[in-house]
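Reopening this one. Same input as before:
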Amino acid sequence: MFIRELRHKNGRIYIQVVDKSSGRYKVLKSFGSSLTSEGVLELKKLASIWINEHQCVREIDFTHEIEQIEQMLSGITQLKLAGIELVLGRIFDEIGFNKINDELFRSLVLYRLVYPKSKLKTTEYLYRYEQKEWSEDAIYRYMDKLHSTQKELVQQISYAHSLKVLGGQINVVFYDVTTLYFEIDQEDELRKTGFSKEGKHQNPQIILGLLVSKNGYPLAYDIYQGNKFEGHTLLPIINSFKSKYKIEKLTIIADSGLLSQSNIEALQTKNYEFILGARIKNQKHIFQQKILDLHLKNRESQLTSTDGLNLIVSFSDDRAKKDKHNREKGLRKLEKQVRTGKLTKSSINNRGYNKYLKLEGELNVKIDLEKFNQDAQWDGLKGYITNSSLTKGEILENYHHLWKIEKAFRIAKTDLKIRPIYHRLQRRIEAHICLTFAAYKVYKELERQLKEKQVPYSATKVIEIAQSIFEIEIKTTKSKEIVRKILLVNQEQKDLNKFLKFGC
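Same output, byte for byte:
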C-alpha cells in the first residue's frame, strides 16, 4: 500500500491509497482533493493514518483469488508438528533436562508422552511429523549411551527440580513397587517369574520401585529381579536416596506390602521415621478382638500400641463399601474357577482371595464361605503402624497421599505404556524405564503448571491439543524469503496459547 497523488487539469490534487497486486494498481481508498499544499498535506496525514490501521487487513482481489492461493500453496516447503515443542519442549527445558544435550533423548522423552510405541514406530512418527530421520540402530546405540553415562543425571535433574518447586525441602517420601511382565517363556538374570501384581504369574517379570514426593513428583527409581520379595527393595533405594542427596531427616511412607519385621528394625536402626500400612488382620487373636471391639464409626480413628510402636486404626464408610465390593467380586471369580475345574490343591494359599479356598478330601477344592463371611467384620478398617512424632491427624493425612504413587504407576502403564517392553538386554530395559521416568516427570510438571495457571484442561487434554498444532513454512515467490507461521485454527488451540503463551 502507498499514497498516490493525482493532479487534475483544474489544478486540484487528489489523494488515494493504492495497492499493486499481480501487476495492476487498485485504489483502496480515496481521500478527496485540495488546491492548496496545506490541504494536500492534511489529506496525506489522513491517508497515512488509514494505512496504519489497515496495513494487515487488505481487501481480497477476488479476480485473482485462485491464482494467489495457488502461488501461496506452491511456496509451501514444509508442514511439521509444532505443538509438542511449544508445550512439552518448553517444560522439558524448564525442568533442566536440556542439560542432557542430546536430540535423541529429547525426542524419545517427549514422544513417549505423545506416541508411546516401540522404538521403530517412534522413528516412523518422528520422520512423518517432524521430518527427523533416525534409524532404529541409532536409537539403540543412544539407549546404550543413556544407560552408561546419563541415567543417574536424569534422576539428579528430576530431584533438583522437585526440590525447587517444593520450596527447597523434601523430608517426606512415598515408596511403592509394581511388576512389569514380559511376553517371553525363558527367564534370565533379571526377568524372573514371581508374584505378579498384574496376575501374570507365569510370565517372567521385573520389579520397579518408585520414590515420589508428597505432591507425586518422581524422585528416584530402581529395578529388581522379578522374584525378589518387594519388602527387600525398600531399604536399598531409601538408603541410596538419603546418601546421594545428603538428607538428614526422612520420613518414609509405604503400603502394607512393604511391612516386615526386618524392615521395621532396619528403619529404626537408621533413625528413619516411618508410616506403614499395618496388616491388622494378621495380629494375634487377642489384639484382633481388641481392634474389633473399638466399634469405630465413619471417619473415626483410635491410637493404640503394639510391640513398642504406635498403631492407628481408622474406619471409613467408603472404604467399607469398597472392601465389600472387592470381596464379593473375588468370590464370584473363585466360584467361576471352581465350576470350571481350574483350581487345584496348589491354588490354595494366602494370596489375594485364594485365602477363601479350602481342600475337602484329597483333591476337591471348595470355597470356605464361613471365612468369607467372617472377613466382612473387617470391611472399612485400616491400620497404620508408625514411630513418627507427628500427630494422629498428620499421620493419617500424610498416608493418604500414598494414592499419588498409585496414580504414577497407572499413568506409566496406561498413558505412557511402559510395557510392553520390546527389549531383551538389561541395559536397554533400564534405559527404557529411564526414558519413561523422565516422561512422567514432564507430565507431572505440566500438570502442576496447568493447575497453577488455572487452565481448564487436564494434562492429557493439553497433550492431545498440542498434537494438532502445526507450523507451516512458505518460500515467497518474489523475494524467496522463508516465512514460518504457527497455525492456530480452532478455539482450543487459541485458548491454550492464551494460557501458556507460547508466542503465537
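So the earlier flakiness isn't reproducible anymore. For the record, The chain has 16 helices and 16 strands.
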